[in-house]
Sequence to fold (547 residues):
Amino acid sequence: MLTNLFNGIGLGSVYAIIALGYTMVYGIAKMLNFAHGDVIMVGGYASYCTMMYLGWPPAAALLFSMAICTVLGVLVERLAYKPLRNASNLAVLITAIGVSYFLQNAALLIWSSNPKVFPNIFNMPFFQGVTASAASVSADAAAADTASSGVFSVKQRGTLITIVVNLIIMAGLTLFTSKTKMGKAMRAVSEDRGAATLMGINVNRTISMTFAIGSGLAAIAGVLLCATYPNLVPTTGSMPGIKAFVAAVFGGIGSIPGAMIGGILLGVIEITARALVPTVPSDIFVFAVLIIVLLVKPSGLFGKTVREKV
Amino acid sequence: MSETMLKVDDLNVYYGSIHAIKGISFEVKSGEIVTLIGANGAGKSTTLNTIGGLLKAKSGTIEFEGRNIGGTPAHKVVKEGMALCPEGRRIFQQLTVKENLEMGAFTRNKAEADETIEQVYEQFPRLKERVKQVAGTLSGGEQQMLAMGRALMSKPKLMMLDEPSMGLAPILVDQIFDIIVKLNKAGTTILLVEQNAQMALSIANRAYVLETGKIVNHGTGEELLHDDSVRQAYLGG
Fold:
């Protein structure tokens, strides 16, 4: 039971990191970026290629894939979504799905449909470097990893790293949005775009920034995901992407702590369901959560009920 | 006479095919309080939003201190030295009072912002008491003060106020207008849009009357207060 909980939190942490990208983009650009899951896949391939073909250490590969995904996220926003800034929500949504298929098929063209077997980076001595560079980890976290490496199996070690990385990202983002000028500006844009413009905040730049952060995080999620489930194919990102979307809705879309809690709860539900009723595919439970949330509390756990002033 | 700060010439604004502003021209001189009065839908807010860069004019020029600012995007207009305090206040409800004020100084550096924030606290002691409070929990009057304080944070030469008295109790309306006069005496030029014509005219140096997108009358505040047509239309006979 405890193992299930532990693994659930580990899987949930990956969902949480992906869900952050959904929720931040939704909060600021007011759109659902359904291509977000495929950015994860690109991140996975980018780190795979640099590690396998160029022999880079995992830390460098992670940084490289973060850079690639950040650029990709900003580029997608500029080319596909920005021209639709004043278009209907439906047009933007359909475009996002189009971008998703575009990325998947581009990956199919480049890397073919044969699965690539992602190296188990958690088993390499470099992995402390991975966590260290992931989000400028404190010495404590690295020390904790080293101390635990004797006690835990490789898989457990990976889960632990995933959880720690998630916590660091969450703390970093919370600090960013509450303490920095740019972070506060993001919250201002999220609440009232027009009023934010009047303050001198460049809304387009803020939206680009959000896509950059969300996509950079997607790269981290991609590497963590592939290290745990090593079969890398062009559709690798779509299922975790959709589940992370469920997590974001569960937690309350637009809310950063909501993405965290929603992601972790969803991971725990998925793993527990898989253990308790192994005959039923666990995805059923994940999507049942979405349906129940939408029926019972559409604003999610941490969602703000928006008051419409008349 | 003092020099012209803002000069609007033959401005035309459309919402799709609706011609909302029909070739209006007016000016605001340095140190003045100028008010635009008129009924609902006369185009008062549209005029302010166009000057503030939120809307695009179809034709006409907007000059601020001799520079043409027509078509400048809203986030750059602030740097020119203009602040718009929008209709309905539009403070950031989920941010704290302090964060709202910091956003007002977004285009300035921290040292400048810290200096101005003290002046704003002096002007609005109520805000200082509530710096850490989330803005959405403030009362209507406090929210209006916050909206004005936030606009002041950019240290504007010209402050545009859109319906600052809307939805406030009469005693608060008096307070807000006192503050506007005080700000003006401290050196900020004011362009005020109001439905409360009586109050607006009583503090304004000059006023323009808007009717369905056109300026139909103008004069000093005093003149218009006693003008028969204005009295009948806006001051209740």
